[in-house]
Design a protein that fits this description.
The structure is a single chain. The protein has six helices and no strands. The chain is an all-alpha fold and about 150 residues long. The chain has a domain of about 80 residues. Helix 2 runs antiparallel to helix 4 and helix 4 packs across helix 5.
């Protein structure tokens, strides 16, 4: 971890995809609006533009040998830095920012796993309660059958 991070291809991608990543939330927000979804032609247009933007990210990510979501995150972080400082983000700073996001996502994942474990225990308890109630109904039905044939 000594020495600066140098990757001209990534720097170029961060610059070239800046506007692409800035436009994505606009189209994603439009896609969830009921008024857009009710008009199929408008929805198809918004969906098509969004797909084109995602394809641009995906193509560049493939060239850099990284996942599209990874590149999108890096461009978003780069854009935030540029908005605040009016300068291009140093890759060492981008690495620290990405590392901070990674740690936050790990905590979020752990929280989701804990929530899932709680839900799983509740689901098993509910399934057991269903089985107990079913057993009660079957017992009573069997008792009725014995009296009728008794």
């Amino acid at each position: 971890m000594s020495g600066p991070i140098v990757d001209p291809d990534l720097v170029r991608a961060l610059d070239e995809l800046r506007m692409v990543v800035e436009r994505l939330p606009q189209f994603e927000e439009q896609m969830i609006l009921p008024t857009i979804r009710q008009h199929s032609k408008q929805f198809e247009h918004v969906m098509s533009v969004r797909a084109g933007l995602l394809d641009a990210i995906s193509g560049r990510a493939k060239q850099l040998h990284m996942r599209p979501g990874t590149l999108r995150l890096m461009v978003e972080l780069s854009n935030d830095y540029r908005t605040k400082t009016r300068r291009r983000i140093p890759l060492d700073h981008l690495r620290r920012q990405t590392s901070t996001v990674l740690e936050a996502m790990k905590r979020r994942s752990l929280q989701a796993q804990a929530d899932f474990a709680i839900a799983e225990v509740a689901m098993k308890a509910a399934a057991e309660a269903v089985n107990e109630a079913r057993d009660g109904v079957q017992y009573l039905d069997a008792s009725r059958a014995e009296v009728a044939h008794g």
